[in-house]
Design goal:
Blueprint (H helix, E strand, L loop, with lengths): L4 E3 L6 E4 L5 E4 L5 E3 L3 E4 L6 E5 L6 E4 L20 E3 H5 L4 H9 L3 H15 L5 H11 L7 H8 L2 H14 L1
Antiparallel strand pairs: 1-6, 2-5, 2-7, 3-4, 3-6, 5-8
Helix pairs in contact: 2-3, 4-5
């Protein structure tokens, strides 16, 4: 794609920090829309075409499957196939962060600011779901769902699921 970049879906969500000039994103009608400087990229099922609009200073935080749940409350499916301003996804005023990122003298200092921001937003998650996500993401140890349930979820939950399955089948 001349003067641009094609992003293919990978099943993961991202936070993107663009303290430089924002990127343009191709819309379904073929037109281009200026992206926000800070955005949340939901789980995508289609490609996204972008191109720079000027000076590029971009940092992306790529989450493991379900990893964004540690920072974003509520049902993450509301972001499926969507790219939205980050402040609407995490309910906060991020203008001070944008100003700090723009004033940062180096990529290292921008990364440090983003790390502090992420740590400040971290919510304690469900340890069982975090373990399940880690196990599913480990390519060296493929695991089927029933085995995963036995390792991570309570035996009672598995028994209830089997009982419910026998009623529905």
């Amino acid at each position: 794609m001349p003067d641009g970049h094609r992003i293919l879906p990978d099943g993961c969500m991202e936070f993107v920090f663009q303290p430089g000039d924002a990127f343009l994103e191709r819309q379904s009608d073929g037109g281009w829309r200026l992206q926000p400087h800070l955005l949340l990229v939901g789980q995508m099922e289609r490609r996204t075409d972008i191109r720079p609009s000027g000076v590029i200073h971009t940092v992306g935080v790529h989450f493991r499957p379900a990893g964004a749940a540690a920072l974003v409350s509520g049902d993450l499916s509301r972001f499926l196939n969507r790219i939205v301003p980050l402040d609407t996804a995490i309910d906060g005023d991020l203008d001070p962060l944008v100003r700090s990122l723009r004033r940062a003298p180096s990529a290292r200092s921008r990364a440090s600011l983003i790390q502090r921001f992420l740590r400040s937003r971290l919510r304690l998650g469900d340890p069982a779901m975090a373990e399940a996500a880690d196990r599913l993401a480990d390519p060296s140890a493929p695991m089927d769902i029933e085995s995963l349930a036995h390792c991570v979820l309570s035996v009672r939950f598995v028994q209830d699921a089997r009982f419910q399955g026998s009623l529905v089948s």
